[in-house]
Amino acid sequence: MRPTTITLPDNTDTAKQAVFAPSVADFIELVKPRLVVMILITTAAGFYLGAQQTVDWLRCLHTLVGAGLTAAGVLGLNQYLERDVDARMKRTQERPLPGGRMNPLTALLVGAVLTGGGMLYLTFIVNVLSGFVISLIVVSYLFLYTPLKRKTSLCTLIGAVPGALPPVVGWVASRGALTGEAWVLFTILFLWQLPHSLAIAYIYREDYAKAGFRLLPVIHPDGTSTCRQIVVNCVALIGIGLLPTLYHIAGTVYFFTALLAGVAFLAVGIYLARTRSVKAARYLLYASLVYLPLVYITMALDKM
């Protein structure tokens, strides 16, 4: 008796289409809304603090739209550029691109449209200077910070530059000029980013090592150099964090809030330096997420 041959339908094309069928949740994950919200908080604070008399709320809304579109696009393009290394790390391998739920071309187009649209929106609807500053964020984040993560531990320092520019975008959108006060806001955010980023890198240093990232906790896994950098920047942040009062950007309430928040942030950094544990690094990460909105919101509420 001859065996019966059963011919199965060729579902190859259907399977391929199923692989690249991103959901709304995948598109949301691509643009990292939580990070966008954090960026918009500092942008809005910069706009409000930059207003000399009355706040132009319509212009502020336009600024947030342009900055939000650009931020979402840049974060999406970053995932497109790093889709290969994301696939090697446990914490990122289920993202839409390495997880196979989104076509890379789709991510590229979405990221490019959002980024380009946001830059043009700021340039033509708000002012040219805000469009210029946002373009510096795009270029430095995508074409300096992203590739340098695989080459040098200095990438953290370089990446802190575009990360610290959102309040400057808000300031120049409101004031129409780049003044010394804007650089104070920049420096606070710049110094905050270093312990924040190094805490994340310390927690996931094994994952980053698999991806080939040359971050400080990967190069020196014992944590000595990482903890030293964290403590030094937390100390600097205490002093720089008080400058808004000296520059008459904010008042006394902000001064003492920033002082107490800075000391608490430093205390958690010292705790990490003493224990060098992942638990302490997580505490530092949580402390950083409390420090930034607390300081910027208090600064806006206590505006001089």
Give the gist of this structure.
This protein has 304 residues and is an all-alpha fold. It contains 16 helices and no strands.
Q: Which CATH architecture of the largest domain is right?
A: Orthogonal Bundle
Roughly what percent helix? over 70%
Number of separate domains: 2
| Total number of beta strands | 0
Beginning-to-end CA distance, first to last residue? 95 Å
Strand content: under 5%
- Estimate the global geometry from the Cα principal axes: flat
Structure in words:
This protein folds into 2 domains: 21-176, Tetracycline Repressor, domain 2; 179-304, Four Helix Bundle (Hemerythrin (Met), subunit A) (Up-down Bundle), CATH 1.20.120.1780. With 304 residues, the chain is mainly α. The protein has helices at 12-19, 24-31, 33-50, 57-81, 83-86, 104-126, 128-148, 155-164, 166-175, 180-203, 205-211, 216-219, 224-240, 243-246, 252-275, 278-301. Helix 7 (128-148) runs antiparallel to helix 8, helix 10 runs antiparallel to helix 13 (224-240) and helix 13 runs antiparallel to helix 15 (252-275). The termini are far apart. It has 16 helices and no strands. The model is unreliable at 1-18 (pLDDT under 50). Helix content is 76%, strand content 0%.
